[in-house]
Amino acid sequence: MFALCRALKGHYVLGMITDNPLERMRLMDEDMQLENLFDPIIVSADVRALKHDGTPVIFDAALQQCNCQPEEAVFIDNQQRNLSVPAAMGMQTYWYDDSLHDIAALRSALAEWGVQIQAQK
């Protein structure tokens, strides 16, 4: 997944929306250097909304920080329940089943939506 993000970085705005606690996100960022790949990183505690609370609040925050409209966005999540609100807003959505680790299927879906993935150097 990180290789795919690196291939997209610089050509697209890559953001992260997470319901992880703030302290865990700080540790993850420190360990994985998430800020080097994702901007913005939207943490539910910061916007006081969850991905699955039935409201667009957290997604609106991401769209605003990315300066884009829902129809210009792709939302990928590892939980199907988190896809309904962004889909209703007009985003392309993709359920990434962590247990399958099927990056090829994700790449194919992105290509169908017109996302151009740069070859890795």
Descriptive keywords:
single chain, 121 residues, alpha/beta, Rossmann fold, 40% helix, 12% strand
Describe this structure in words.
The protein starts with a helix and ends in a 9-residue tail after the last helix. The chain has one domain: Rossmann fold (3-Layer(aba) Sandwich). Strands 1-2 form a two-stranded parallel ribbon. Helix 5 links the parallel strand 3 and strand 4. With 121 residues, the protein is of the alpha/beta class.
Can you give the helix content as a percent range?
A: 25-40%
Main sheet summary: 2 strands, parallel
How many distinct folded domains? 1
The CATH class turns out to be Alpha Beta
What is the first-to-last residue Cα distance? 16 Å
Q: Tell me the quaternary state.
A: single chain
**Low-confidence parts, pLDDT < 50 over ≥5 residues?**
none
Overall geometric form: globular
The pLDDT mean sits at: 95
The main sheet orders its strands as 1-2
Counting H and I runs of at least 4 residues, what is the number of helices? 6
Radius of gyration from the alpha-carbon trace, in angstroms: 14 Å
Strands, total number? 4
CATH superfamily: HAD superfamily/HAD-like
Query: What is the CATH topology?
Result: Rossmann fold
Order of helices and strands: HEHEHHEHEH
